[in-house]
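for the record, two folds in this file. i put them one after another cuz i was lazy. first one right below, seq on top, structure tokens after. the second one comes after a little note so u can tell where it starts
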Amino acid sequence: MHIAVAGNIGSGKTTLTRLLAEHYGWEPKYEDVDVNPYLSDFYNDMQRWSFNLQIYFLNRRFQGVVDIHNSSRNVIQDRTIYEDARIFAPNLHSMGLMSTRDFENYKSLFDLMISLVRPPDLLIYLKSSIPNLVGQIQKRGRVYESGIRLDYLQGLNDRYEEWIAGYNDGKKLIINVDELKFEENPEHFQKILEFIGI
């Protein structure tokens, strides 16, 4: 079984992935932000590094999905391959931070990759307001995230809402993390387990 957790920067994907992996005994697959060779450069100069960053993420996520499908274990994944192509790259393009030439090249590569893999059995989307995201980003204190632009976060949030509304590749569960503080409140985490129903 393949479960994927989706959501904006600071929505709690890694935390929920860890908690669910511990509870169910699933194998967690985390986003490797700490070893990403482009992330710090990207936040310092988004226009220069946007294409490089998105290609790096697409490559890593495609490899991750292939590994998951070749595994016999139940896996929970922190962020999906869809989010790069449906949220992050289009947002960068619309903000003028990725050229049309690079964006078209990127989309073509994504379309080829996605034709070769299956969607997750369950997609869990963590819905959050911008103030909540900003609070979480500040709380974790990653230096390279300290300069994230609010218009960038808002653009991502708008695209997440549009994408999840039209997502029909499989089962989905939407969790409002402004209301369900699952990391701090065991009762809220229990509600999420009830929603998942496994």
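(here's the note) second protein begins now
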Amino acid sequence: MKELIIWGVHFPAGSIALFAAIASFYYPKGSQKHRRAGRYFTVAMLIMLASGALGALFIPSPDDAFLAAFIIYTVFTAWLTAYHSPGQITKLEYLALAYIVLLGLVALSIDSQWDKIRDPNVYIIWPIVALMFAIGDIKHIRSHGLHEYKRLSRHIWRFSFSLIWAALAFGDKIIKILHSTIEEMLWVLLTPGIAVLLVALYWLIRINPRLSLFALNTASTSVRPKGNLP
């Protein structure tokens, strides 16, 4: 059952998410094609994460289940940032904040002696990452929604954070298909994630009027009709 979920749902959905993300980076921001690619990415990622969490229950693997739960948050908030109009805050933002705080508390409560945990040291990092996201959510809520390049930066950062994990999962599955190991083909695992990181940094610099000489017209690109996905 686990293999069916992983190879029949998880891997195909992750592949679709990866290619949809490439398309969303390629197409002009705010265009119809960009929004359509973002829609495919969001749906494919949520399917991939849900199936990954379900597959982790069969192993069982608390690490994979926790990671899936965490990335669901970043995918959702990246989508929510672009879905809402500038300055719009709803109950969904509060729900996302409560969710990430809860995940941080779960990470803190993980027993390092639990034999199902492969790397207990990772759970020292997750509460810190959760705190960073929670602070971002609080600022977003207190300012009644972000505007212009700050809103785009939030969308790109969370979108890219989610995508990096999808790229790592994609590389991991390729290694398994080739019947190799991560140690032997580390470059296959890391190259997609590094590429995503570099592209994300490019866009974060480009949309920032203080850092870019050819900054985007954020006033026009940040205004999108409600109901359209990124």
